[in-house]
Amino acid sequence: MAEKIKPLTKKQLETLKNKLLEEKESLVFGVQSGVTDLTLSAPEGSDEVEQSISDYNNSHLLRFRNREVFYAKKIDKSLKKFELNEYGLCTDCGSWIKYERLLARPTAEQCIACKEDAERDESNSFVGRQSKSLGRVVDLAGMMA
Ligand SMILES: [Zn+2]
Questions:
Q1: At 71, which CATH number?
Q2: Is-above-0.85 flag for pTM?
Q3: From ligand 1's centre to the CA of 116, what distance in Å?
Q4: CA-CA-CA-CA torsion for 124, 127, 128, 134, nearest 10 degrees?
Q5: 38 lies in some domain
Q6: pLDDT tens digits, one per residue of 20-75
Q7: Beta partners for residue 46, in sequence order
Q8: Which parts of 91-140 fold into alpha helices (H)?
Q9: Quick check: is 108 in a domain?
Q10: Which structural domain, as residue segments, surrounds residue 79?
Q11: Per-residue pLDDT tens for 92-145?
């Protein structure tokens, strides 16, 4: 059933690596550029309405930031694979992930067949649904900006 997929060429790998680096740079809260001092407004002294607004903003900001951090970590993980010469290989079955798939989603770690299997399993469990929606949230990060 497994169709034979050719290994990525040097040039394709190069393209994907650049894409990952670009994506990383495009993250709003560039994790490595030290935006660690994301200040949350102090809760004391404000009245209840302001309080809830600032809580809302803070949690919103935090959630957005968490997504960025989450995605940045994925990018880092992918970049690390270049060093190990594991980039583009499915973590489940070890075969090559299609270039087109990586181009659309450079942080992909599984080939389509394994990904589909995993999603089928996930949809049977609550935990799986949660982590799945987490993945979708990451995809939506751009729309939230
Ligand atoms: Zn696979």
A1: 1.20.120.910
A2: no
A3: 9
A4: 150
A5: no
A6: 999 999 986 554 444 444 455 545 555 777 778 788 888 888 888 888 999 999 99
A7: none
A8: 99-104, 112-122, 126-139
A9: yes
A10: 10-29+46-144
A11: 999 999 999 999 999 999 999 999 999 998 887 655 444 444 444 444 444 444
> 90 CA to middle of ligand 1, Å?
5
41 occurs within a structural domain:
no
Total number of domains constituting the chain = 1
| pLDDT recorded at residue 128 | 45
Ligand 1: centre distance to CA 89 (Å): 8
**Axis crossing angle, helix 48-84 with helix 126-139, rounded to the nearest 10:** 90
Q: 39 lies in a domain? A: no
Q: If you measure from the C-alpha of residue 93 to the centroid of ligand 1, how many angstroms do you get, rounded to a whole number?
A: 4
Position 3 scores a pLDDT of 59
